[in-house]
Amino acid sequence: MDNLYSYDYQFRMIVVGDSTVGKSSLLRTFCDGSFSPDPDPTVGVDFNVRIVEVKPGVKVKLQLWDTAGQERFRSITRAYYRNSVGVLLIYDTTNYVSFTHVTNWLNDARQQIEPYHCVFLLVGTKIDRESERQVTTEEGKAFADFHNISFIETSSKSTLYVQEAFALIAREIYDLLTEGHIHVQKGWDGVKTGPNTASSNQNQSVNITQNDQPKRNTCCGS
Ligand SMILES: Nc1nc2c(ncn2[C@@H]2O[C@H](COP(=O)(O)OP(=O)(O)OP(=O)(O)O)[C@@H](O)[C@H]2O)c(=O)[nH]1
Ligand SMILES: [Mg+2]
């Protein structure tokens, strides 16, 4: 059981994508290890928390915002982008249309998050339904490479690569933090220091100049 009061950093992330691509299922598998074949659609936004270790001895509390894919909730869910340091862009590998919409989700997130710094991860879901696959792994990878973001395929039902997906994005954010590309900043909730971090300097500014952009996964520099 995670001790939710013992961590070094808090990363706030948002999970977006079309309705029924499996956003809530991904979070449920990750956060409590359960899978439902018939969950209710998300209404507005939902919230999950889990502690992960990004490297030995460094604990990060992931604050995970699960958004509704349905269009009628779009104005509500947009409000949650700004304070996020990570965006999981989700599509369903058995639904090609959901893949074609990832560009819109990416552009929408970039618009809302700028000028703050964030990391994207492209996630193709439902790989247990291999015979129904409509989006190849190569197509997913090509999209991610084109946008210079990371990519993974998962199954919430079988749990395949679910832990790895969150470990990947958390580690990328942590690396950018330690390299000085992302900072804790007053008035922005994307990254916060936790109780275990002694030097909680909330007043540093985010450096978002073009020259300081890291190679991958920026919302505002690529
Ligand atoms: N076979 C299989 N089904 C999945 C998987 N992930 C989700 N599903 C199913 O896909 C359907 C939609 O899942 P949700 O997690 O509710 O989708 P969502 O993206 O949260 O949908 P909204 O809340 O409406 O935006 C449900 O019937 C899930 O059981 C998976 O990895 N494998
Ligand atoms: Mg949902």
Automatic annotation (TrEMBL):
Superkingdom per UniProt: Eukaryota
Biological classification of the source: Eukaryota, Metazoa, Spiralia, Gnathifera, Rotifera
UniProt cross-references to NCBIfam families, sorted A to Z: small_GTP
Keywords for this protein: GTP-binding, Lipoprotein, Nucleotide-binding
Gene3D superfamilies membership: P-loop containing nucleotide triphosphate hydrolases (3.40.50.300)
UniProt-annotated stretches for the region Disordered: 193-222
Sequence similarity: Belongs to the small GTPase superfamily. Rab family.
UniProt organism field: Adineta steineri
Ranges annotated as biased composition (Polar residues): 194-212
UniProt xrefs under InterPro entries: P-loop_NTPase, Rab_GTPases_membrane_traffic, Small_GTP-bd, Small_GTPase
Protein name in the entry: Ras-related protein Rab-39B
GO terms, molecular function: GTP binding; GTPase activity
